[in-house]
Every structure is written in structure tokens, then in C-alpha cells.
Design brief:
This protein has about 200 residues and is α+β, with helices and mostly antiparallel strands. It has helices spanning about 10-20, 45-60, 95-105, 170-180, 180-195; strands spanning about 1-5, 25-30, 65-75, 80, 115-125, 130-140, 160, 165. It has a single domain (about 1-195), classed as Maf protein. About 35% of the residues are buried.
């Protein structure tokens, strides 16, 4: 039995293998499984999009398929960018530019109203057709400047008051311990370890 993760992102696969490493199965990316398909993520929630991806890949292999959908919700922007995080302000727009635009849009918002969270939904489709979905979140706020080199995407503007730094300033170990994806992956690992017994 293998787990195929519906991503081609090497950074994400490294994180996934670190956190799911204790499961008694090989974990490979859809690329490593030889699956190359375009998946239209047209769900309205993170959970719907994760399930759409997992079901699409599950149609091409006999394995446990995992897929995630994640993004940033900024409360003072009506939970934007939300499920459109990757496509927000245009898919080709580089993240430093997206981050600068967001900071400019909320430059007059007080700290108490800059609450935000990263959300990650992970869906699993089992070979027998059953599916599972879990959600992890990381609460924080939007900082006032771009800071940090360790993260990607919106990490450099996502400030964690308890650490006094952005998620892009955390070490990979610190980030895995508190991140939305880390939490969701650990929840999914618990569910799968019961099934794989």
C-alpha cells in the first residue's frame, strides 16, 4: 500500500514526509506516481477543493490518495484571499507583490483588527472509495512589514504574536509544530494509522 499525495510541490512533499514519516507506507507525490492531470479546483471551501483533488488523482491509481487545499483568511478583508489564495491578484503575480498590496490595503487597520489565520484542509480517498477530511488552522495577524526568508507565499506577512515573528522567520521545526498543515497532517496521520493497523 502506498500513499500518493496530490502535489508536485517539492517543499510541501518534504514537509509531508517529515510529518507522516511514522506511517508504515511509502509516501510519493503524484508526479512520482506518474500522474499528470489538470484538476479544476472549483469548490467554495478548502475541504471541497481538497476532496476534488484527491478524487481526481484516486481515479488514476490504486493507493490511498491525499490532497490538501490551504490558504490565508484575513478577517478585516472579509476572509480574503481564502480559497483563492494562490490565484489572488492574478496567478502570475509574485508573492512579494501580493504581500505588499495586502499590507497597503490594510495599512490603517489597528492591530486588534488585523486577525488572520492560515487554513489547511486535507482529504484522503481510500481504495475502497471512503473519504476523510480534516482541517488545521494557525491563528495570527497580518504584520506591518514583510519579514523572514524561511517561508513561502504569505508567510512573510503572517505575524505570530506568541513568537514575536512572522511564520517566515520560524525554523522549519518550529513551523511544523504550529502550522496549519502540520496540525492537519498530524490529524490525518492519526486517522490513517487506525485504518492501516
Amino acid at each position: 500500500m502506498k500513499i500518493v499525495f496530490a502535489t508536485g510541490n517539492k517543499d510541501k512533499m518534504r514537509e509531508i514526509k517529515q510529518i507522516l514519516g511514522n506511517l508504515p507506507v511509502e509516501i510519493i507525490s503524484m508526479k512520482e506516481a506518474g500522474i499528470d492531470i489538470d484538476i479544476e479546483e472549483n469548490g467554495t471551501t478548502f475541504e471541497e477543493n481538497a476532496l476534488i483533488k484527491a478524487k481526481a488523482v484516486a481515479g488514476h491509481c490504486d493507493a490511498i490518495v491525499l490532497a490538501d487545499d490551504s490558504g490565508l483568511e484575513i478577517d478585516c478583508l472579509g476572509k480574503e484571499p481564502g480559497v483563492y489564495s494562490a490565484r489572488y491578484l492574478g496567478r502570475e503575480t509574485p508573492y512579494p507583490e501580493k504581500n505588499a498590496i495586502i499590507l497597503d490595503r490594510i495599512k490603517d487597520v489597528e492591530d486588534k483588527d488585523r486577525s488572520a489565520r492560515f487554513v489547511c484542509a486535507i482529504a484522503a480517498v481510500l481504495p475502497d472509495g471512503r473519504d476523510l477530511v480534516v482541517r488545521g488552522t494557525m491563528e495570527g495577524m497580518i504584520g506591518h512589514e514583510i519579514a523572514g526568508e524561511n517561508g513561502f507565499g504569505y508567510d512573510p506577512i503572517f505575524f505570530l504574536p506568541e513568537y514575536g515573528k512572522t511564520s517566515a522567520q520560524l525554523s522549519p521545526e518550529e513551523k511544523n509544530a504550529v502550522s496549519h498543515r502540520g496540525k492537519a497532517l498530524r490529524m490525518m496521520a492519526d486517522r490513517l494509522s487506525e485504518i492501516l493497523k
